[in-house]
UniProtKB/TrEMBL annotation:
It comes from Octadecabacter ascidiaceicola. PROSITE patterns: HTH_GNTR. Coiled coil: none annotated. This is Putative L-lactate dehydrogenase operon regulatory protein. The keyword Isomerase does not apply. GO terms for molecular function: DNA binding; DNA-binding transcription factor activity. Residues 5-75 form the HTH gntR-type domain. Transmembrane segments: none annotated. Keywords: DNA-binding, Transcription, Transcription regulation. Pfam families: FCD (PF07729), GntR (PF00392).
Length: 239
């Protein structure tokens, strides 16, 4: 006999599958805990745990009162963004992905956004990138703050493509892989060089020059890969 956690996971999956298939449409009220308990032949506490799992994934919301209950939520890309980042970070940390592989993946994905961002970037995206460049050039900026600014810069570039599916898919590349790469290279990188590349990328985006954006991202990829190798070589020498 399966234990309660296994049963609650099965019930959550069954309801999630019904939501994905459209059998339970957005804003549809789920059966009550008592009805679900009878339907799945489990205790109400097991049903409650299954509903908690679904709520944690933003698939359902609960409302109190006479007309309350659990309802199918309209999941947005923004709601799922954090889950994508967390999953990517866990995969990287648990599967010991090497630096070159992470670098290759990140920039290949980001360069896919270059032509779209050049065509669609808004004044707000450009303003965000310019503000982050100014921040990165501050002499007293901590490594942690520089990393956060670096992520914000590249997220604006990706979001400039105006495609929420791409932004969601690249969440892991920008906000999971990039911080990991920064942690490895921060002792060797030249902030001045990075700020120069960022400025050139923003200029190319403003001019809607997709080929220049792509070439500059390729330059940044090459520079980042070189940093990773130099750090690795220095560690070997010192050991």
């Amino acid at each position: 006999m399966k234990n309660a956690p296994d049963l609650s996971a099965q019930i959550a999956k069954s309801i999630r599958d019904a939501i994905v298939s459209g059998d339970l449409p957005v804003d549809e009220r789920l059966p009550s805990e008592a009805e679900l308990s009878e339907q799945f032949n489990v205790s109400r506490s097991t049903v409650r745990e299954a509903l908690k799992r679904l709520a944690a994934q933003s698939l359902i919301r609960t409302q109190r009162g006479a007309t309350g209950g659990a309802f199918v939520n309209r999941l947005t890309f923004e709601d799922a963004y954090g889950q994508q980042i967390t999953t990517s970070a866990l995969l990287l940390s648990m599967n010991t992905v090497d630096f070159d592989t992470a670098c290759e993946a990140r920039f290949a994905l980001e360069r896919a956004c270059a032509p779209l961002s050049a065509a669609r970037r808004s004044a707000d995206h450009l303003a965000t990138m310019r503000a982050e460049i100014t921040r990165q050039a501050q002499p007293g900026l901590s490594d942690e703050s520089f990393c956060a600014s670096d992520v914000a810069f590249h997220r604006a570039l990706v979001d400039g493509a105006g495609n929420p599916v791409l932004s969601y898919q690249l969440a892991g590349a920008v906000e999971a892989i990039e911080p990991l790469m920064n942690m490895i290279t921060f002792t060797a990188r030249s902030r001045t060089h990075i700020v120069g590349l960022h400025t050139a990328i923003a200029d190319a985006l403003e001019a809607q020059n997709a080929s220049d954006v792509d070439a500059l991202l390729a330059d940044l990829a090459t520079y980042t890969a070189q940093l990773g190798r130099s750090v690795a070589d220095a560690k070997k020498t010192s050991s």
